[in-house]
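Structure representation:
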Amino acid sequence: MPLFSPQNTLILVALADELPRSLVPDWRIVYTGVGKVNAAITIEREIASQRPEMIINFGTAGSLSPDHQGIVEVGQFYQRDMDVRGLGFALGQTPFEDNVPIDFGRQGLTCGTGDSFVTAQPELSTDLVDMEAYALAKSAHDHQIDFYCFKYISDQADDAATTSWQDNVQKGAALFVKMLTKE
């Protein structure tokens, strides 16, 4: 029996280019738009209206290591652009919150989410970088909804990242669908 079922699962993806609905017509796919604010607004609206038992985030990510390729699972989520070190908090820590990182108890890579497209090593060191996963994971965690995150490595978060992302944004969809539907 497959781990994921279309009946109880919501799939959140930033852009239709990353996962066209036509590839998984029986699944509930919602496009969040780019960035943490769009992701947060979308997931909260969908939780309130759809009440999913499970949420999957799929999309592209930049890898900060050449060792990561293809589709990978994310196990821990950081907010890479939260910087309140001036008040004594660690880089990536939201003030007065203890849950850094967001973690669902699964093995996987670390992902630093921020509202910038990464083209050089960010100050907060993680395996991957993206622009939505932390907001989605935090909301799912706060609502106690099971959350999975799979990212297709589209680029190496370097000076060639823009071109690499544009060339690769659509390549992960078929691999994700195969993984999603395998038994």
